[in-house]
Amino acid sequence: MKQYFSFKGRIGRLEYFFSIVVASFYSFAIGFAIGITSIDTEVYSVSMDILETVLSLPAYWLILAQGAKRCHDRGNNGWFQIIPFYGLIMLFAAGEDGANKYGENPI
Predict the structure, then answer these.
(1) Which domain holds residue 61?
(2) How large is the average pLDDT for residues 9-21?
(3) Distance (Å, rounded) from C-alpha 42 to C-alpha 85?
(4) Could you give the CA distance from residue 98 to residue 82 in angstroms, rounded to a whole number?
(5) What is the pLDDT of residue 39?
(6) Mean pLDDT along residues 38-57
(7) Contact by Cβ (8 Å): 73, 106
(8) Considering the domain boundaries, does residue 7 fall inside one?
(9) Is residue 2 part of a domain?
(10) Between residues 36 and 66, the one the model is more confident about
(11) Tally of domains in the chain
(12) Cα-based torsion angle of the residue sequence 58, 82, 67, 101 in order, rounded to the nearest 10 degrees
């Protein structure tokens, strides 16, 4: 997994899947930690929401970057990932064989 947070290049289905898993676990851990802290202190404020959002930003960035690279592997612009249900296509459809305008075949 090279250049996790870069929007350049291409990645395969497996790397995209593992990126989603890692980002999901990270976001869940952040949410769980914030939730436990809120229960222990019995104070839940806007500052906790802001803290959770700030701590989750790396996971959001990772998913966007990896999604753009997966779109590139399919020969599409990175903006295709905002199309509803296109994430499923990125998980299951094969990428283009050989090099394309986004780079060499990842595997």
Answers:
(1) 13-92
(2) 93
(3) 39
(4) 25
(5) 60
(6) 74
(7) yes
(8) no
(9) no
(10) 66
(11) 1
(12) -130
Distance of CA 9 to the CA centre of its chain: 15
Alpha-carbon gap, residue 15 to 21, rounded angstroms: 10
Task: Note whether residue 45 is domain-resident.
Answer: yes
Beta bridge partners of 103: 100
CA proximity to 106, closest of 71, 78, 64: 71
Per-residue pLDDT of 57-90, as tens digits, reads: 999 999 999 999 999 999 999 999 999 999 899 9
Contact 72, 103 (CB under 8 A): yes
- The two tokens of residue 25 are 């676990």
Q: Answer whether residue 100 is part of any domain.
A: no
Residue among 61, 60, 80, 78 nearest 69 (CA): 78
Q: Please tell me the predicted confidence (pLDDT) of residue 41.
A: 59
